[in-house]
UniProtKB/TrEMBL annotation:
Record key words, sorted: Antibiotic resistance, Cell membrane, Membrane, Transmembrane, Transmembrane helix, Transport
Domain (Major facilitator superfamily (MFS) profile): residue spans on this chain: 1-482
Residue ranges of the TM segments: 31-49, 61-80, 86-107, 119-141, 147-169, 181-200, 212-229, 250-275, 281-303, 315-335, 341-362, 456-477
Subcellular location: Cell membrane
Signal peptide: none
InterPro entries, per the entry: MFS (IPR011701), MFS_dom (IPR020846), MFS_trans_sf (IPR036259)
GO cellular component, one term: plasma membrane
Species of the source: Streptantibioticus cattleyicolor (strain ATCC 35852 / DSM 46488 / JCM 4925 / NBRC 14057 / NRRL 8057) (Streptomyces cattleya)
Protein name: Multidrug efflux protein
Membrane topology value: Multi-pass membrane protein
Molecular function in Gene Ontology: transmembrane transporter activity
Amino acid sequence: MSLLLVALDSTVLHVAVPSLTEDLRPGPIELLWIVDAYPLAAASLLILFGTLGDRVGRRRVLLLGYALFAAASGLAALATSPAVLIAARALLGVGGAMIMPATLSVLRQVFPDRKERAVAIGVWSAVAAVGAAVGPVLGGFLLEHFWWGSVFLVNIPLMAVIWPVARLLLPESTGDRDGPWDLLGAGLAALGILGVILGVKRLGGGDGFTDPAALTALAAGVVLLWLFVRRQRRLRHPLIDMSMFGRAAFGTSVGCIVLAMLALVGLELVAVQYLQLVLHLSPVAAGLRLLPLTFAAMAAGLTGSRILHRVGPRAMVCGGFVLTACAVLALTAMGATDRPWLLTGGFVLLGFGLETTLFGAYESMLSEAPPDRAGGAAAIGETSYQLGAGMGIALLGSVMNAAYEPGVRRVPGVPEYAADQATHSLGEAYDVAGRLGGPAGQTLRAAARSAFVHGLHVTLAVSAGLLLIGALAALCLPRGMDTARAAAARDAVHG
C-alpha cells in the first residue's frame, strides 16, 4: 500500500496542473519546479536513505518516511503560494526516497528464500504499476468533485492506516554496522545524481543539447558521481559495495532497468500527448485508455515468479524486451484517426512485456546483493529506474522534436513567425492556429497534426531499437536461478 501511494503520487499531479495554475498563478519556472521537485528530490536521495536504512534499521527509515510523506501531503494540499507547493513537493520526494528502497530491501530480509522472494517482488512490481497508472484517473475524478489540493489530501488517511500496521507487522532489520556511515559519500551521491537527472531533464526541452545550463549540470553530476565511486572503492566500509557491479547478473540487471525505463517513459509521454492532442480525448479518458497497460503489467507481476522459475532470468528479461519491442512496432500503425483495438492490443503487449523485463531484472539484481547490503542494492535499482526515466524523456523527447519540427517549419500560406512558434509543440501549434483563424489556421493545424504523427512513428522506431539493445544485453544474465545452497554460499562469502 505504501508503494502504491508513492507511485500514485508521482503521476497524480499531471492532471491537476491546469487547476493549480489557475489558482496559484505560478510563473513558467515555478510551474516547472512544482512538477519536477518531487522526482528530483526522490531520485537524488535514494542511495542516501537506502544505505542509511542498512545502518540504523530499514523499518525505522520506512516509518519516518511514512510520517514525512503524510505531513508533506497536508502542506501541499493547503499551499497558498507556488513556493510553499514547491517545498511540499520536495518534502514528498524526501519521504518517497525513504519509503521506496526500504520497501524493496525489507523483502530481501522477510523472504530469504529466492522462490518466495520472487513472488513478493511480483506483487511489489504489480502494485507499483497500478499506482503509476491509476494516478491520472484518480486525479481526474477528484478534480471533477473537489479542488486541486484533494489529490494530495487523499494520502493522509491512508498513511494513518499504514503507519501502525507497518510498525506492528514489519520486523526491524539492519545490515553491516561496522565503521562510520560515510556522510560525505552520501552527499556526493545525492548531488551527483541530482546534477545528472536535472541535466538530462533539461536536455529534453528548451534548447536541447545546446542548453549550457543542462550541460553544466550534467557535467557536474558526472564528476561528482566519479568522485563518489572513487571514494567508495577506497573505503574499508563503503556505502555501496562496488564489487557488486563486478557480478554479471547485478551490473546487467541495473543496465536493463535503465534501458527499459529509457524506452518506456519517453514513449509514454508522447503517447499521452497523442491521445489528448491528436485524438482529442480528455485527461480522464486518456488515462482510461492506458488502463489495459496497467492490467497487463499487473498480470505480468503476479505471474512473474512462475515464469522466472520456468525459463530463468536470461530468457525472461530478453523475452520481455523482445515482446515490448514488438508492441512498440505494432503501435507505429497509429495515425490521425482513432483505432481503439490497435491501441488496446499494443498497450496490453507493452505492459506485459515491460513488467516481465523489470520483474526479471529487479529479482536478479536483488538476489545478487548480500543481505546486509539489501538497502544499498534496492536504492541502486530505484535510482536506475529514475535515471532511465529522465534519460528517456530527454532522448526520445529530442527525437520527437527533431522529427516534428520540419513538418511545421514551412507551411504554405502560414506566416513565418507563426510557423516558428508552432515548432515548439503540438499544443502550441494548435494555439497559434486558433489565433490565426481562417484557412491559414486550418492548414497549420492539419500540418502540425500530421507532423506529430510522423514524429510519433520515428520515436516508436527508436524506442524499439533501444529495447532490442536491451534484449542483447540481457543475454549476459544467468540462464537459470541459483539454488538455495549456492545463494547461501554467496551470501556467506560477501556477508
